[in-house]
Amino acid sequence: MALPLEHVRWVAHLARLDLTPAELEAMARDLGAIIEYVNQLQALHTDGVEPLAHALDLQNVFRADELAPSLTVDAALANAPARRGDFYAVPAVLD
Questions:
Q1: DSSP for 14-68?
Q2: pLDDT digit of tens for each residue in the chain (95 aa)?
Q3: pTM of the model
Q4: Which whole-number Å values give the CA distances from 48 to 45, 55, 57, 94, in the listed order?
C-alpha cells in the first residue's frame, strides 16, 4: 500500500521527528507495509474466537509466598557506608 508522503510527514510532525526526504521515503514504505499487514489481519474470520490475553494457556508460575526469617537490623546495615540509628544515612539531596 502506497502511503502519501503528506501523511508520513504529518505522522513525523506529531512524533516530533525531523526526517530527511530519504528517511520520509523509507518511512512511507515501512508504514505502508505495516498498514498492509494490519489489513491482512482484519480480513481474518474471527467470529466465535474468544479474546486472549496470551497465546499460550499459562497459569501463575510464581512460587508460593512463604514466611521466612529476615535479616536483623545489624546484619542488613553491616555494609552501609554510614548509618544513623537503625537506618542508612545518605547525603541530603534537597536544601
A1: HTT----HHHHHHHHHHHHHHHHHHHHHHTS--TTPPP-S-SS-----SPP----
A2: 778 999 999 999 999 999 999 999 999 999 999 999 999 999 988 888 888 877 787 777 788 889 999 999 999 999 999 999 999 999 888 87
A3: 0.50
A4: 9, 16, 18, 59
As given in the structure block, the three cell numbers for residue 9 are 510527514
Task: Name all domains of the chain by residue range, CATH numbers in brackets.
Answer: 5-42 (1.10.20.60)
Helix axes 21-42, 5-14, angle to 10 degrees: 100
User: Smallest Cα–Cα separation from 17: which of 30, 27, 2?
Assistant: 27
